[in-house]
Design brief:
By secondary structure, the chain is α+β, with helices and mostly antiparallel strands. The protein has two domains: 199 residues, no CATH class; 85 residues, Alpha-Beta Plaits, CATH 3.30.70. Helix content is 71%, strand content 8%. It has ten helices and four strands; from the N terminus they run H-H-H-E-H-E-H-E-H-E-H-H-H-H. The protein starts with a helix and ends with a helix.
């Protein structure tokens, strides 16, 4: 009996006869994926190790960007805009008005009497009448919107002038921009590397199963029955690599937590869970995507 005939008899035995065989189909697909992984042999270790290294770098950089973003937010939260009012301007009324501006989270009224008293404590001043104006201290929830808030405040004719740490605000905005851009670039690089590795692996599997796939197609096996085991194989590589990458990532998270604690900055809320979920999701998604691209390129189904 020829090899093709033997393979034909083998697949014929497992061909589902009706819709009641759904469980059997799922089992058979999973077994095909397991067999494909076994056929890859020693290369599995190389592939998974490479995936783990790539995902470890991605996880470390992504976790670092979260810490930088948290650091920038904490610094931004202490940044205030000082609005100096004209004589006779109703400070409490204006405070309520400015508090309704988008992204303003708090407005404090600093009476000119208090400002003058504090200044005289710090400096030796002559006994003259109070030259200071009433002041409103405006806090914004996001440093990126501080310019918009300032524009709205300046529109009020009762505001004499505005002062804020402009240079400091610009640096914080730059940090936020760099953090977001870095995250996008790193994600794209990880996607390309992962997809390339999985693509080459699945191509080898397709070549080794060329005769089997040809027989399945001649027997009328649906395309998804051929595709899914290969997609599962790619997803398996991504999952295995992500699980291994969690080990070095744990030490990275511990180190960053110590840095945050040293600067009295809280650790990003749900940061660890977010990193673990993101790493597993990226590994599985990009692994499966690499398989799909390889199937479309090298397998006409």
């Amino acid at each position: 009996m020829s090899r093709k005939q033997a393979l034909k008899n083998q697949f014929k035995e497992y061909m589902p006869k009706d819709w009641l065989a759904d469980i059997r189909i799922v089992y058979r697909i999973c077994m095909e994926a397991v067999n494909d992984i076994k056929r890859t042999g020693f290369m599995n270790i190389v592939i998974i190790t490479t995936m783990a290294a790539i995902l470890s770098i991605f996880g470390a950089l992504f976790r670092s960007t979260l810490s930088l973003a948290q650091f920038a937010n904490e610094l931004g939260s202490i940044l205030e805009v000082s609005a100096y009012l004209k004589n006779g301007a109703p400070a409490p009324e204006m405070a309520q008005q400015f508090s309704r501006i988008d992204h303003v989270i708090n407005v404090r009224v600093i009476p000119k009497e208090q400002s003058w008293k504090d200044m005289r404590k710090q400096m030796d001043l002559p006994r003259i009448s109070n030259p200071l104006p009433d002041t409103l201290r405006i806090k914004v929830d996001d440093i990126n919107y501080i310019d918009n808030v300032i524009v709205q405040v300046k529109k009020d004719p009762r505001v004499e002038s505005i002062n804020y740490a402009e240079a400091f605000a610009k640096k914080l905005q730059l940090i936020t921009h760099v953090v977001n851009t870095t995250t996008i670039i790193v994600t794209l690089i990880v996607a390309m590397l992962t997809i390339t590795i999985i693509n080459n692996t699945i191509q080898l599997v397709i070549q080794s199963r060329k005769d089997e796939i040809e027989i399945m197609r001649l027997m009328g096996v649906s395309n998804w029955y051929i595709r899914i085991p290969l997609v599962l194989q790619g997803a398996f590589y991504g999952l295995a690599g992500a699980l291994i990458a969690l080990i070095p990532l744990h030490f990275v998270q511990v180190s960053l937590a110590k840095v945050n604690s040293f600067f009295l900055i809280p650790t990003p809320l749900m940061g660890e869970a977010m990193i673990v979920g993101t790493l597993l999701g990226v590994g599985i998604l990009f692994g499966a995507l690499g398989s799909l691209l390889s199937i479309k390129k090298h397998l006409q189904v």
